[in-house]
Amino acid sequence: MRPISRRDLAVLAVGLGVASWLLVRTSYGLLPPLDWWLGVPLGVLAVAEALGARTLRARLAAERQARRSTQRPPTGATARPVQHVEPMLVARLAVLAQASAYVGAVLVGIWAGVLLHVVPQLGRLAAATGDTVAAVLGVVSAAGLGAAALWLEAVCMVPPMDGDDAAAS
Q1: Can you tell me the distance from the alpha carbon of 109 to that of 15, in angstroms, rounded to the nearest whole number?
Q2: Pairwise CA distance, residues 33 & 25, whole Å
Q3: Rounded to two decimals, what is the model's pTM?
Q4: How many domains does the chain have?
């Protein structure tokens, strides 16, 4: 698997932002009011992925440290048993991270397009106030999901082996 291109995510978000702005601009009166809680599930997913990335990073670091300590003579301190991390779990989390990064980019673009339309309407339309709150929460939650996904993807990367330095160049 190749890492996600940040440029691809940015292009996706900007393109969908423009498309959703045009769509909302032409049909804003037909849309139902946007509730403030619409972005909350994205925020929950972002927190879950960030916690998963933190936990996986700690477990992988402990496993690498235990592997290094078995190669050295014991120093006298007793080490705790390390819980093994299954390689398939890391692969599945990497796929989840990539999918979540794309979902985050798509939804950042869509919510940003809505936000671009409703902010100028704040003084004219009463519904624009609630829609602005929903759009801001949506953008923040979707950006959080994308950031957590990129962090999880970075945690899932396998570090190069000692002899792989020439192959990486």
Answers
A1: 7
A2: 14
A3: 0.86
A4: 1
Domain for residue 76, yes or no?
A: no
Three-state SS string over the chain comes to CCCCCHHHHHHHHHHHHHHHHHHHHHHHHHCCCCCHHHHHHHHHHHHHHHHHHHHHHHHHHHHHHHHHHHHCCCCCCCCCCCCCCCHHHHHHHHHHHHHHHHHHHHHHHHHHHHHHHHCCCCCCCCHHHHHHHHHHHHHHHHHHHHHHHHHHHHHHCCCCCHHHHHHHC
Domain assignment present for 163: no
**How does pLDDT run across 120-166, given as a tens digit for each residue?**
998 888 888 999 999 999 999 999 999 999 999 999 997 766 655 54
Q: 41 lies in which domain range?
A: 36-67+84-158
19 inside domain: no
In a domain, 145, yes or no: yes
The tokens of 58 are what? 């700690």
**Of 118, 102, 113, 168, whose CA–CA distance to 139 is shortest?**
113
